[in-house]
Design brief:
single chain; mainly beta; 4-stranded antiparallel β-sheet; 29% strand
């Protein structure tokens, strides 16, 4: 039996005419996190499972790795751009997909120049960060969903908050060493 796509099986769908093509990033692996610049509409960031962070400024026609000289690990689980200051980008390391061959990370990185340089901001023992949310009006108020070690208990799990752009973190939600956080959302009317 030859493989086929669901679109081929339903040719009347409006999406049936779409043709998929690879636009990169080359050597990225699985893409675990994507974020679009809020005002530069052709700029996107992609966080991959084994290739770090990539940026395109032309809607994906070309990608450039922006993390290699700065990151200790290559596995990205989360990306967030600060709406209030899009030059601030946060990256959570360690993919959180349900797979047996995932690679752990080493915490959170922050860029204050759109990804040209990065600084490690801690939380290394969380190993797998699934989501980062940044307050829409305060780029220094950041929340992190930390899954923790994938194959055993560890106390560095749960939800963390930083009020100073990642200089200091406080854990604001913790159940036990075997339960981590996988997602976060902020109330747009009250994003505290």
């Amino acid at each position: 039996m030859a493989p086929y796509s669901a679109l081929e099986a339903t040719p009347d769908l409006p999406l049936a005419a779409l043709e998929w093509r690879f636009v990169g990033p080359y050597r990225g692996g699985r893409t675990m996190a994507v974020a679009g610049h809020p005002t530069a509409r052709r700029t996107f960031y992609a966080g991959t499972s084994s290739g770090g962070v990539w940026r395109t400024e032309n809607s994906g026609a070309a990608w450039r790795n922006i993390s290699d000289p700065f990151f200790q690990r290559a596995s990205v689980g989360a990306l967030a751009i600060a709406e209030a200051d899009p030059s601030i980008v946060y990256v959570g390391m360690g993919e959180c997909g349900l797979r047996s061959n995932v690679t752990h990370g080493d915490g959170v990185y922050r860029s204050t120049d759109g990804g040209e340089s990065w600084r490690h901001m801690g939380l290394a023992e969380t190993q797998n960060i699934a989501r980062i949310r940044v307050h829409p009006h305060d780029p220094n108020l950041v929340y992190v969903a930390a899954f923790g070690h994938r194959f055993g208990p560890n106390p560095e799990r749960g939800v963390y908050r930083s009020r100073d752009g990642g200089e200091r973190w406080e854990r604001i939600l913790f159940v036990d060493p075997g339960i981590g956080a996988i997602d976060l959302s902020l109330d747009p009317q009250n994003p505290r």
